[in-house]
Queue: 2 jobs
Job 1
Amino acid sequence: MAIRVNDLPRALTRSRRSTLFSFAAVAAVALVLLLVPRAVQSPYLLHVMILFFLAVSMGESWNVIGGYTGQYSLGHAAYFGTGAYTTLMLLQYRHIAPWWGAWAAVGAALVVALVIGSICFRLRGPYFTLASIAVAEIIRLIALNWKPVTNGAEGILLMDIPPLKIGGMLVTDWLSKAPFYYIGLVLALVTLLVNYLVGRSKLGYCFQAIREDQDAAHSLGINPAFYKNVALAISAVFTALTGAFYGLYIGFIDPHTVLGIDLSVEMVLICIIGGIGTNLGPVVGALVLVPLSEALRANLLARLLFSAGLLDETSRAGAFLKENLAHAHVLIYGILVVLVILFMPDGVLGFAKKLLARRSPGRVPSPSPGAVLGGPDANP
Amino acid sequence: MIVFLQSVLSGVLIGGVYALVGIGLTIIFGVMRVINFAHGELVMIGMYLTWIIFTGLAIDPFVSILISIPAMFAVGALIQKTLINRVLGALPENQILLTVGLGLVLSNLVMLFFTSDYRILTTSYSSSTLRLAGLSVSTPLAISFAITSAITALLYWFLLKTDTGQGIRATAQDRDAAQLMGINVKRMSLLAFGIGAALAGTAGALISPTYYIFPQVGGVFTLKAFVIVVLGGMGSVLGATLGGVIIGVTESLAAVYISAGMKELFVYVLFLIVLLFRPAGLLGRSRV
C-alpha cells in the first residue's frame, strides 16, 4: 500500500472559503428540501425522497467506520436490524412509543457494537470483514430462530404508530408521508453533519491515521482498538436510528430484509459509488442508486429500450425483459460495483475530480482520501 | 451411541464436499492473495449446470462432472482474466468488493433466467441408503464422498508431483521469487482460479442430488468456505481438507443434538472462536 505522506496535510485541510461555500450550498438545498412536502402532492415522489434520505443516512453512517476509519464492515445490517427490531418490538408488544423506543434501539445497537468491536477489532483487513459478516449472520439466525420474541421468519407487521402529542397539541398522526419525510430529512442532515465533524475533528484525524497506517498511528500514541471502537459506536448508533426509521416507515420487518447481507452490501455500495471516505460520497451514491432502482422497479429501462426501437416489445426477448427487469435491481447493483471498482475506484466524486484536474492543469485539486489511500490508480 | 456415530459419519461425508469448496478457495487465495467472495456462487452455478444437464440431456449428476469440470474451469479462467487480474495490485478491500459484486451479478443473473424457485434433482437413488457396519449411509452422499476423495487425491498428486503443480505452489509461496525463477506467474494465476472454480462447480454437482437448488444458495457456501479455509489456515490445502470435515461434523452434530435451524449458527461461532484464538488456523502460518 503506497502512502504518500506529503499529501496528508493537504488532504486534511481545505480552504475556509470552500468550506463556507459548501455550508451555504447544503443550507440552501436543505431549505428547498424542507419546502418540498408543501409544494409536492404526489405521495410517490415523497416516497422516493424518503428512500433517498434512508440511503443517505445508511451510507453516511457506514462511512464513519468504513470510509474514515478504513474498517470495511460487511455486517452493518446487524445494527440496522437491531435498531429496527428493538423499536418495532417495543412498540408492538410493550406499546412504547417509537420516539422513546428509538433510544432503546440506540442503546441496544451500542451494546451490539461494543461486543462486535471487542471481538472483531482484534483482526485486521479482510479478516475483520469476514468476522463482521459472521457476526451479522449469527444475529440474523438468532432473529430467525428465536420465534417467541422476534416472530421468526414471519417478521413483524406494524399495526399503527400512536399519534405524537406535545402538551396536548397534536403534532402528527402519521397518516401522511410528510412527517416521515421531515424525519428522514433530519436524519440525513444529522448523519451528514456527523461525517463533516468526523472529517474535521481531532477524533476524526485519529480515525484517518488508523486508516492510513495502523502501526504508524499506534506508534504516535493513538490507541487503535479504542478509536476503532469509538468509530464503530458512532456508526452503529446512526445505522440503528436509520433502521428504526425504516421499520416505522415501511411498517414491516423480517430477518431477511433488515438483517441480511444484501443490506450490508448496499450500504457499502452507496459509499463506493459516490466515493468512500468523502463527505458527499454517500449522497452522490444515493443519488445514483435510488433513482436507478426506482426506475427499474417502474420498468422504465425496458420501456426505454422499446421506445428507442432497440427491442420489440412483442418479441420473446422483449417480453422476457419486460417481465423480469423490474426485479433486477440487485443485478444492476452488482454490475455497478464491478464497474466502479475496475474503472473508478475513487467513486463518482473522485472520478469527477480527476476529470476536472485534467481539464485545468494549473489548478491542483486536493486529493480525495481514497486517492491518499493509494491504490495503483492513485499514483501519478 | 449409534445416533452419535451415525451423525459423525454423515458429517464426514458431507464434509468431504465442503472440503472441495474450501480447497478451491484456498488455492485461489494462496496464489493470488485475493479472497473470492463469489466462491459460493460458483458452487451454485455448478449446481444449476448439473440440473440443466440432468433435465435436458438426462445425464446422471455424478457423470455430468465430466462436462461441468472443464466448463467451470473455463468460467474461472474467464473471471480471472477479465476481472481479478485487474485488481491484483489494488487494496484488499477493493478486491473484496469486486468479488462481492461479481457474486451479486452471478446469483441475480441466474435468478433472472431460472427464477428463484427451488429446484430438486431427483435421481432413482436419491433417497436410497446403504448399510455399513450397522450404520445407514445415504447412497448419493456415499458416492459423492468417493468421488470427492478421488478428486482430492488427484489434486494432491497434481500439486506435489507435476511441474505445473509445483509452479502453482511456488507462486503461492512467493510470487516475485517464482517469477524470477522463470515461472509464468500469470498462467499460474489463471490455472489457480480455473482449478478453484472447477472444484467449486464439482462440489455443486456432487451436492445437487441431496440439496435444494436456488439462486441464493451460494451465500451459505461462501461463508462456509471461509470458515473452512480460516479453520485450516489460509492457503493450506491440507488444512482446507481437514477444515471441511470438521465443519461437516460440527454441523451434523449440532443439527442432531441441538436444532437443525441453529446448525449454521454453530459454524459461525466456531469460526469466530478460531479467528480469535488461532487466527492462523490449524495448519497455517500467521498472516494476520
Job 2
Amino acid sequence: MTKNRNNQRKHTILLSGLAVGMLGFAFALVPLYAIFCEVTGINGKTYAQEIDDTPAVLQVSEREVTIQFLGQVGRGMPWEFRPMDTQLKVRLGEINLTSYYARNRATQAVTGQAVPSVSPFYASNYLHKIECFCFTQQLLEAGEEQQMSLRFYIDEDLPEEIKTLTLSYALFEVPELEVASLTLTNNLQ
Amino acid sequence: MAVTADHNIPNRSPLMAFLSRWLLTTNHKEIGTLYMWLSFVLFFIGGAMAMVIRMELFQPGIQFAEPLLYNQMVTLHGLIMVFGVVMPGFVGLANWQLPMMIGAPDMALPRLNNFSFWILPFAFTLLISTLFMEGGAPNFGWTFYAPLSTTYGPPSTDVFIFGVHLMGISSVLGAINIIVTIFNLRVKGMTLMKMPLFVWTWLITAFLLVMVMPVLAGAVTMVLTDRHFGTSFFAAAGGGDPLLFQHVFWFFGHPEVYILILPGFGIASQIIPTFARKKLFGYHSMVYATASIAILSFVVWGHHMFTTGMPLTAELFVMYATMLIAVPTGVKVFNWVATMWRGSITFETPMLFALGFVILFTIGGFSGLMLALVPADFQYHDTFFVVAHFHYVLYPGAIFGIMSAVYYWLPKWTGNMYDERLGKIHFWTAIIGVNMTFFPMHFLGLAGMPRRIVDYSLQFADFNMVASFGAGMLGLTQVLFLYIVIKTIRGGKKATGRVWEGAEGLEWTLASPAPLHTFETPPKFPTPEEDYPRD
C-alpha cells in the first residue's frame, strides 16, 4: 500500500509539472511565433536591419518594380500621417529615399510607433530598410510636424512574378505604460 | 437513505447537516452527483440564452434583443455550454463511474476532488454575474479574439478572465485526479488494455485537459496584462500581433473540442454492446483510434484560421492533417456498426440516444470534412454552416452522449428504473428538435448567412423560423428530461444489480442503488474465460 501511495504522489507531482510546463509553453509561443514569422516572412512583417548588414556595393539591376506606400493611423491616434510619395518606380538593388509626413494634432505630446507590413507577404524578406522611422518610437510635441525619412532597397532576388509591392504603415499611439512610469519617476524626484 | 446514516452527526440542525454533508464530502459518488446537478442547472441557464437567440432570429429585424444583448447571449451561451455543461457533465460521470468500473473504493485524491468541484459554482456565479455589470457581459464570442477582448472588451471582461482561470484550475485538478486514479487504483488483473472503453477515453481526455487548459490560462492572462499592465502581446502598437491570439487560443481550442467528445465515444462504446448483446467489435482499434485522434488534435488548430492569410504550405498541411482525423473517427463509427451487426438489439432509451449519437455525430463529422477543405472554407468561414457543424457534433454528440449515459446508469445510481415511455418520448422529441433546429442552418450558411449577427436579410427568414420552432421543441423537451430524472430519484420500479440484461462490467456486480462506499475490499476481476459475478 505504501508503494501505491508513493506512486500516487509521484504521478500527481509529474502531472502538476506537466500542467505548469504547458502554462510556460503558452508564453513561449509568443517568442516562437515572432521567430517563425521573421524566418518565413509570414504576416508581411519586415524587421529592422542594421546598416552593417547591407553590402558595401549593391548590384543595381535593370529590372524595375513599382512600390506603393500607404499610411494609416490606429484608433484614437491624433496624428495626421501620410506618405510623401504614394508610388515610386525603383530598380532592384538601388538605394532609394522617401519620407512620410506626420503632424500631431493633439494639444499634448504624443508618442507614436509605426508598424510596417508588406504585401504580398512573401516579398517582405526582399525589402530591406536601411533607415526607417519605424525602427524607433517617434515623439511629437503638440502641433509639431515632421518629415520622417525612409531609406530602402529591394533585393535583386525578388521573385520574378512580383511587379508591384505595397509597403503599408499603421501608426499607433504607444501604450501609456512608459509615459506613465516616466511621470511617476519625475514625481518621485 | 440508510447509506447516509454515518454522515449525520447528532445535535446539528438539519441545514448544517445538509451543508456539511455536501460542502465537505469527499465521496466520489456524492461529488459526481454534485457535478451532474451543476451541469443540469447550467444546461437550463445556457439553454435559456439559446432561446433568447432563437427568439430574436425568429424573424428578420430586431425584436427582443438589442445587438449588444444578443452578442452577450451568444458569448455566454457558448461559454456556459462548453465549460459549464459538457465538461462538468462528463466529469460527473467520471466521478460516479470510474472507481466503480475499475474496482476502486474512491478517487485517488478525494479532497482535491471536493476542491475541484466547489471552485466551479463560484466560477459560474462570477461569469453569469457579468450580465448585471456596467457595460454588460462579455460580448465578443466564446473565442474572445483580440482586440475584441483587449481594446474593445467591456469592463466585465476582467471578471470573465478570473472565471476562466477558476474553471481551468478546476479542470486541471480534476484531470490529474482521474489519471492518478486510473493508473494506481485498478483492480488486480485489469491491465490497461482490459479497461472499459469509458475509462480509456477519459484517461486520454484527462491528458488533453492537463496539456491544454494551462494554455487557455496563459491566453486569458495575456489578455489581462494587455488590458491593464501595459503589455502588448496582442497589440500591434507595442510590437505584438493580434493574430498571435488566435494561434494561442486554437492551440487550446482544438484539443478542447475533442475533450468535449471523447468521453462521449467511450459512453457509446459501453452502451451499444450492452443493448446489442455482443462484445464491442475492435476493442484495440478503438483505443488506438482514440489516442490518434487526441495526438492529431495538437497539429490542426490552423483550420480555424484559414482565412487569416496563412501561407499556402501551412494551409495544405493543416488541411491534410485535419482530413486524416476522419480515418480514426471512421474506424470508431464502423466498429460501433459492426458491434450491432447480427446482435440481438433492443431499443431502450439509452440505446436510442447512443444510436442518435452515432448517426448525427457522423453528419457533424462530414460537415467538418467539408470545412477542412481550404477553398471551401473560404466560403463557409464564419457562416451558419459552421454553427450547424459544431452544434451537430456537440448537441447530438456530447449532450446526447451524456443523456444516454444518464439513462444507462441512473438505475444504478438511484436504484429505480426511469419511466421508459417518457424516456422514449424525450428521445423522439429531442432528435426531431435537434434536426429541425440545426439542419436548416447548413442551408443558411451555404446561402451566406453570417454567424454572430443579430439581424439577417429577408431570404433567410423561412429557414430561421423553422430552426426557431425546432429550438423551442428541443428546449421544452429538456424540461421533460428534468421531470424524468426527478421522478426516477423519487421512486419507480426497483432496478436489479445488473440492471440491463447485456451489461458487462464491475459496476454491475454492485447492488442498485450503489452503496455509498463500494469496493472497500477489491473485487475479483474475472479472467476472459470467467463471467462477472451475478447477484
